[in-house]
Amino acid sequence: MNNYQTLVDDLHALVTEPAVDLVRAALVIARVEYPKLDPEPTIRAIDAIGVKAADQMVDLMDAPMTARVNALNRFFYGTEGFVGNRDQYRDFRNSLLNVVVERRTGIPITLALVYREVARRAGIEVLGVSFPGHFLMRVPADAETGDALILDPFDDGRRLHESDCRGLLQRQVGRHDQFSDALLRPCTSRQFVARMLNNLKRTYIEQRSFPQARAVTELLLAVEPTVGEELRDRGLLAYHLNDFPTALQDLESYLRLRTWTKRDKQEHERIVEHINALKHQVAGFN
Length: 286
Fold this sequence. Notes:
Blueprint: H1 5-15, H2 22-30, H3 40-57, H4 65-79, E1 83-84, H5 97-103, E2 105-106, H6 108-121, E3 127-129, E4 136-139, E5 149-152, E6 158-160, H7 162-173, H8 189-206, H9 210-223, H10 228-240, H11 244-257, H12 265-283
Parallel strand pairs: 1-2
Antiparallel strand pairs: 3-4, 4-5, 5-6
């Protein structure tokens, strides 16, 4: 059993519930960095913000959804002071919910999570949208206009129209013509959790924090056990950490389980090279 098995078990238990508690799932993820983290203070803090939001919105319950969202934005980003961390976007703490709530700053997905929870307590349903490169929020169809509201959690909850989404896609992936309404569909709770984990894993790898990146990969496999790329990445991270037997086992499994095509030739050759090198390393231990 590895050092993170308890985290893996706890997260797996949460994401297999019929209704996933995203706050508690995010706080399990935060234990990669804060192993003894007590989730209750963060949950109480979000509850308290939600109560204040509900008080602010009490006279707007029958107002059009756009008016209610505008009021919630003023409260969340103005009164409570939540803001996107533009100066230190790649700070790993932007992905840790306890720190985001304490510092009032984060990246799009963690801000969206807090916003969603505060909105729910104030009687507004907000869904996550796993838009390429920039997590968004969606408020179901407004009775006033008949359209869903697409909001940017990183830009004070600003409403985005199709032209804004096309421009955002252009900036993120370089192809505005790939835009479709499907990109604005709500994501599932598992997809929400997986996106949080992928963001954190990428940040840890960029910072060469390989033990933490390996732990996050373990959590990703708990959420999405069929994603072969995570098996590959866990093997490569084990290699960086000189855990050669585990690296060999994971990479051999990845090589065997993946369906390879001619387009994958370079990656296939690279994985085979790693496996051959690892076999020599492991043989040297015997």
